[in-house]
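=== Structure Prediction Worksheet ===
Name of assembly: unnamed complex
Input type: mixed (protein and possibly other molecules)
Chain count: two
Listed entries:
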Amino acid sequence: MDTNDAFQLHLQKLPPQDEKTFETIYTLGNGHFGVRASNPLQGNNSHFNGQPGLFVNGFYDLTQLSYGENYSGYAQNSQTICQLPDLRFIIFELDGIRSDETPYNVKLVDKNLDMRTGVLMEIFDIKSPTNKLFRLTLQSFASHADKHLFVIKYSVSALNFTGALTVIKQHPYINQQIQSRTDDMRASRPETALDRTFIKSKLPIMLISTRKSQLALIVAQQALKDNPMQVGMIDDLPCHNKTFDLTQGMSQSFSFVYAISYPHPLLKTTLSQSSFAASAEKRLANKSFKQLLDESAAKIGEFWDNSDVELTGDTALAKDIRFNLFHLYQAAGNDGLTSIPAKGLTGSGYEGHYFWDAEMFMLPFFIYTEPAIARQLLLYRYHTLPQAQRRAREMGVKNGVMFPWRTINGEESSSYYPAGTAQVHINADIAYAIDTYVRVTGDEDFLYDYGYEIIVKTARFWLSYGHWGKDIAHKGKFVIDDVTGPDEYTAMVSNNYFTNRMAQNNLSIAVKYSNQLKHSHAEKLVTLNVTDEEIAQFNQAADEMYLPYDDQKKIKMQDDLSTSKPVWPIKETPRNQFPLLLHFHPMTIYHYQVNKQADTVMTDFLFPKDQDAAQLKRDFDYYEAITVHDSSLSRAIFGILAHRLHHADDAYGYFMQTVMMDLSNSQGNTSDGIHAANMGSSWLSLIYGFAGMGLEKDSFNLSPELPEAWSSLRFRIWFHGRQIEITITQTAVTVKLLSGNPIKFYLKHKAFKLTKEQLVNHFLK
Amino acid sequence: MDTNDAFQLHLQKLPPQDEKTFETIYTLGNGHFGVRASNPLQGNNSHFNGQPGLFVNGFYDLTQLSYGENYSGYAQNSQTICQLPDLRFIIFELDGIRSDETPYNVKLVDKNLDMRTGVLMEIFDIKSPTNKLFRLTLQSFASHADKHLFVIKYSVSALNFTGALTVIKQHPYINQQIQSRTDDMRASRPETALDRTFIKSKLPIMLISTRKSQLALIVAQQALKDNPMQVGMIDDLPCHNKTFDLTQGMSQSFSFVYAISYPHPLLKTTLSQSSFAASAEKRLANKSFKQLLDESAAKIGEFWDNSDVELTGDTALAKDIRFNLFHLYQAAGNDGLTSIPAKGLTGSGYEGHYFWDAEMFMLPFFIYTEPAIARQLLLYRYHTLPQAQRRAREMGVKNGVMFPWRTINGEESSSYYPAGTAQVHINADIAYAIDTYVRVTGDEDFLYDYGYEIIVKTARFWLSYGHWGKDIAHKGKFVIDDVTGPDEYTAMVSNNYFTNRMAQNNLSIAVKYSNQLKHSHAEKLVTLNVTDEEIAQFNQAADEMYLPYDDQKKIKMQDDLSTSKPVWPIKETPRNQFPLLLHFHPMTIYHYQVNKQADTVMTDFLFPKDQDAAQLKRDFDYYEAITVHDSSLSRAIFGILAHRLHHADDAYGYFMQTVMMDLSNSQGNTSDGIHAANMGSSWLSLIYGFAGMGLEKDSFNLSPELPEAWSSLRFRIWFHGRQIEITITQTAVTVKLLSGNPIKFYLKHKAFKLTKEQLVNHFLK
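=== Predicted Assembly ===
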């Protein structure tokens, strides 16, 4: 196997897709921003089919939400991530005809993404209206060394003529979004309008601001020194421009770097604009393309060193896995003020909102392989505690916080509360993620400074939102009414098993960490007003949490009434009627037992010690039969559980559908952006699934079992400051301590000691 | 007591209210249209505070509904009743200044409504910008003899000057609505735009049409012969106009009649416009005000003969009762294509929609006193069966029909389904009303031609929407999931007691009438495909209907889980936080046991034989304690049940709050229109409550008991073609057969025979 090829994503080897899907797949990003890999001549010209754009994490405008009946406490504005002008955009002028005024013919010849370095290479053949043909080659990357930079090199060579070609690098428009109508509530809302001014500078530097959210950011454009270009003014707008004399067969190159600031309130940005301009001019001067690329490639190289998963036995699959890891890395906010949008930074689907999947489906990858990023992602939630506290009061919840179901700025942005605000499990999901982070990293500082406060305040929410049952069925138990679990095909129920079990965990870890900090840092409890009485209340509610169980079917019940409804006739429903939410009224869907995604079985997954294999099998069989996987978050969970049940074929089947989702556009909407959480699920499937990773007290356990098709699986994790490499074959497991102190771990629940000098080789068969 | 005064509603004797509330209270209508009693100089000038308008039953436009997340099957358009130009509007010109261009000062001096004749008399003192003062007296009525006519007489007399006054009777604007912003989802939506053309005619005749619903109606204006006026053109628009020479102390009069057509599709209206014009010219020629008034007064006199309720012992209350009956009569559609909007034809609140209250709260009054109107109201539902059938299919319900929760044209117009479409009890409510109509009137033709089909098709809905329980709690029972009962503070529950009990009744009467018609009109069952097997299914579902009951508290449970929630802290909630729906998120409200209105106890009311007195008392006490009466439909039901429990003080208290609601503006929103259903409830309270009216097989029972404050209560009913007068005093009941054949009836469940020659006098004490 050619090592290099293992990281190449070559267009010709992908299944055929429409243009917008490829734009998504080849998006370049670095957690701060993402640039779709569109036709660089499109701009906002609707003559072309693409949907180009730059997305900056945390840069959104507000669009007013409208309701037929507008109730108190409803989210009044949706935050919508802004679609900014495509940085790849370029204007050519041939025979006096500008490509942005009279569309040129653009033919995509090839694309190749080198995931190892993060460099995208593209070839387009372009024909002017005067039938002059030239080839445009792009080489671009989002810098991983300096998160503000996007770098792009253009090469042009004439194919059928000799003569002058003028290049204008300018953004004559500001509103990038190209109108499209859709009834899919998962796509984005109508456009938002942006304003733009150019800052006084030697360079073209734009200050882009939103109308309603009053945010702004600065984008500076600089020609790199490889082939300098003059700054001029065309149509009263600053630009770089140059006229090349092309000769057939000889290519000419020129490259640019863009510096994209963090978004800040407009006022702050305006005040700092001149110093930003000065600093940009200075920082971007005298940089070469190669220099910037080397710095970025080195940095992403570290990511691969930490995070790569090497699978042998299926070359194509090994690459698909890397594709998922690459996009996760590109999507994750890393400034403590942003998280991972559901579509990464590859599109405006779901408005660019952060959901529970950031913590539950993507964070584990970072916790184990890039803990510094995981910490930043959790800090984002910490910084939105004030909004979550206000929201709780607004919803009549007396204590604690209520994190929003979907948001960018920390405020609730969900306009359909039964499948939004009612998913209060988000609170417990965040607490679960913090606990996992602390247990895997041993980062006690984070716990003390940030994590504990979130855990306490989310635990308080449950005490306020739930109550002690008084009726016969719930007497003496802690019950939680009016919630929606992960399965959005069932809404506003009492005692959703998943929610109650997660709330129980939230309360338990609040007790655990309270007791721990009471001894080491008693002042923290005083600051947060945590009393022994409150700890006792947490403990009691956790101990007596009501968990609905069907004694007839001997399964965990999804909620108090779930098993009483008729089952949706899944087999009789035509394929084109899925996803159900696009074809049936919510009331119609709620009227049946039908799951959009893993719900109750998520607890089997998250709490493996809750049930024995027989219980797991009953839950799995029951819920698998009523689940339609209309959510991309579903299959991976079923796959991991199938692995635990030693249903090797099922586990492999579910995994293959998970890992291929965006490359095969199997959900049909990759054009709106990647399914970031599903990519996180791929990693979960590999590590929690096939490698059987699980947490033990201060340690971890592996229960590996590879599909027959695979020869080996190798990956690295960080655990309590140690880097550990794990290699699994059909017959053996090898565990290697790459750095750090000796540690105990478990293999199939048998303890081993790992020291630096020693490998652990364990034979499975 | 002055008999005449008993029908006078004199402004000076009413509690002080704001102008818009009085506009509502004094609205004149006749079931076809309503005209608010506004400042006749306002027009659509926002200089004044009023909200003038003409509302025509069934004339609506569509406004697009917008949703943050727009799901399949959602209502896409709201029907909104159109606010048409005020027919009272008039323009004066003094010293060259037109009152519609430069606002005059208008001071309301007095109003008096003679409910006996339906004539409204009003006095305004008007001052021109040149300080000329004159008095304007209006006398107006909506004709009850010819439902198309609105008649108005203006008298002017100079108070401080002598000279010329020009009168222009013209509608220079078409869009009447005056912008107002509100967050109250019970008020109306933003305006709709109307178009208007004048038809070629000798008279000013407008064809008014809507933009989206493509409906049109025609309004013709004619000066009456009492003081003829010329038709002319001013500003290119036709008008009547005349200049009067005023002398102080001498008044001059002129009067107009408007003919308002029924609304029809625009195309049809356009095609018939010339014949309408010709006919209007002919019909309206040579009519005098007195002639039109006499015809109308005679007709409304018949209404009072049939429907008056005479109460002695409380003169003010007696008048309040008449006020309610008068407005009910004014509100009820009577063309078989319209029903009773929630606000009558007095305002645009609730968009002018028809709800369940038409059948459940208002129809009984008409069934017993004006059965011909009751029949028209039920025909409206019959004519919307095709829409209800389409809606059922759209909602995935395989058989039967699904009537809309709120509508004008028969299509669902509810934009918040948990408190809209989910109130599927509307189906059973309509069936219940038909059964009552048939049992009271004996109108077998209606049953055969229309009613039976509705009963069968609604019964089929229940068989499809509900299912047979399989879990332990519901095994072998017929259960109905995902519904909302009348109480909108609890939504989307399983086995709402009210819904299930009403569905049971719907199924039972389907069986009853099927068995009846099988013998008399077997062909009807064939036409509707009703088989013995289906009748058996109806019967079985009715017999085994699940009715939730709390064995601990020994009360009917509102739904499967209702009694498990904590009770809303009603006493601790500040007064200004009511109604709760304007101050709390729905999820917050649903999280508690708190009832907006009578829900489960509605079944105690509707099915008196379901429970003994002890059960009724437990239900009453439990639900009264958790009910906040944020709906105007609530108190009357509790009052009637209090009467049955012999809680005389409670019954009287609830009744007094019901009967006074609009005159005292106790809900605070009478300005948006009357609470028509509450007015129906007043009648229910008197007849079903204090008189104790109830149905027996082919007969009725009275169990009267008057509040101590009252001397007597007298009313008339029609029962199976007989008119019967009932007089109740503190000590005796007198029942008199006014027309028709002898009949048996019951007094406190004791049988009596009533013949034409004989009164029944029964002593209560």
